[in-house]
Queue: 2 jobs
Job 1
Amino acid sequence: MIRRFSTLYVGHIELDHCGLSGTPADERRYPNRRLTEVFDTAVALAHATDALGYETLWLAEHHFQHEGYECIPNIPLLAVDLAHRTERVKIGCAFNIVPTWNPLRLAEDSATADILTGGRVVFGVGRGYHSREVETFGNPMLDGEANRELFEEQVEIILKAFREESFSHRGKHYTLPPEVPYRGYRLKSITLVPRPLHRPVEVWQPIVSGSARSLDFMARHGIKGVISATAESVVQRWLQDYQAAAGRHGRALRLGEDVILGFRMCIDETQEQAIRRARPYFEEHAKFMAPLGMLRYSEEHVSAVAARQAQSPTGATLDNGVRNRSWLCGPPADIVAYLKELEARYPGLEHVMIAWALGTPRELML
């Protein structure tokens, strides 16, 4: 039964001239004063989600975006601030871009945030999809295999640090601890200080292409999945594949269990009115994300994601997104009815996340 609701804010500022006919994405450049507006918006959303009973406000980590689309560089740091301004809402990391971090620094910062917030920070990991981000931090993004290999080793280190009193690691990219003398003895293991107090640490990862390798990695390490703004037919296949992967690693899950299902959404009195209101922001979102190959509104999109290919911003329409249920547009009663359908179809599904397209004004989000 669906009983948990959350929302996602990826950190966009209020953009002018949204839509395919508006300002080209690569021509947007905002001054620092405008880019810092994301923190005020995050505070407003934290207060709203806290008051409305949402379980989690998810935030996204990104870097160097003078275009104003995704402007939060450090989720654990912001999460500590938001938790101290609110009463109960959790702050989720959707996602910490692990290849931009030293894995032990990410583990330390996340453990500290866990302690300072009383367990209200939800840990999430991602590989990244912006070459400007990951490559600038000195790690591979354009070489997809190298990126995945590094990410998997980094996550394994983080999980060891969280789960074990002391640990060592010998891998392709990291030797931990280094084989050096320390205070008269040779290091054999290290301890993360502090470790999270709230254990076991719940870990989430996006399901982006649904590859067998990624699902097996998640299942092997007990990582939960997030499927967001994805065509209905693809969702069903990925939920089945995730369930099967978990089963191969000894976890018997109901279909939909341990997965968050996310949607872009716009509510209005009729579906037509909702589509009309959402269209410029849908187009702005596609305009920015399609060249990165990150739309999943159709089977063709998913094939492009898996192949790491750019997509056309005009190859997706909001009407098709509504038809394939990657977008929910319409009156509340219609959306509730569809969620009831999902409950019947996926008996293990408990958690639904809603999100806004890039550029959606704060007044519409609230």
Job 2
Amino acid sequence: MTKTIDLEKETKKLTEKLLSLLNVEATVVVSEIESKEKEKSISVEIETKDESGLLIGAHGINLNAIQSFLALTLRQKTGEWIMVSVDVGQWRARHEDYLNQLAVQASDRARLTKEPQYLYNLTPAQRRIIHMHLSSENDITTESEGEGENRYLIVKVK
């Protein structure tokens, strides 16, 4: 059953309540993202002076938890899945830039050595960013291997 609510307003209210419970003073900006697939997507930008590290957590783990909490709560309120993206102080954008640089370094090394380059300790989202970044390279291919926590990415010359 789908319930109609103002997604932006509800998401902002939920985020501000969560931050209040954490005793974090922050500014929250919520916007609905246009999607080609007609999926509903929400972007949540949080700006705080002193608590960025707390909200982001090690390797973005707290940020991902906040994102999951908001998505699950909105699912409960609306009856449908809504893609939620949460960022604090542009951390996700900077992290994606880092991953893109890592992808370029691995592909350059693969071209130079003609040997596969292995990238370990990446989350599924991080592997996806690297796959997507290198997908336009005509002479490079990427693949994930392994299972669960031992999954890794291979960058190699075609």
